[in-house]
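Methods — Computational structure assignment.
A single polypeptide chain was analysed. Its primary sequence is given first, followed by the predicted tertiary structure written as structure tokens.
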Amino acid sequence: MKFKDIPKEERPRERLVMYGASSLSNEELLMIILKTGTKDYSVKDVSLNILNLCDGINKLKDITINKLTMIKGIGKIKAIELVAVIELAKRMYESTSIKDVICCTNPLNIINYFNYLFKNKKQEEFYVIYLDNKKKYLDKKKLFVGSINYSVSHPREIFKEAYLLSASFIVCIHNHPSGDASPSKEDMILTKRLKDIGELHGIYLVDHIIIGNNNYYSFYEDNNIVTHNK
């Protein structure tokens, strides 16, 4: 059935108003977000094609603009809008689930929550998790992409965000795309600098975690630095 042939009262927008968003299928929710199709492909066709490309709703969260624009009926603007909606939904879910954590002090606990950030990444990405004075989650920031070095810009950017958030503690976490989580010389130098600078400013380093391929390294667990992880 073409979209125009669906009785008005059975169309997704009308059904959402009458029965609530939970009553709609994944396809129907996508139809509302996409709004329209094209001359050759109805919005219903395009929505089904997206779900088929993702092999279901679970993988939709990882879809990219490039993949979306491969679908007939999806231009760059629609792709950007959909990716933005997906990212917003991920952030809302993440914020709710992470704030249920009492303390971000256990390395495995931290990895379980944030490992998804590094899935299939080809470059190093450096995140800082900001915690309040009870070590409860405040926010996370991706501050650097590329090989980690110990230039002065790293501590400056890290602690600038900490001041803006009124954070008392930080956890640093980055990946090694090679798969080997062993710390490099640069990782060790940077970690010591962050610890020393943090102590001067009263914003303490809890841990620096490196994510590899099914392995990790925790400076705290290895007693490589004395942290305030209590």
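Note: Residues 158 and 196 are 13 Å apart (CA to CA).
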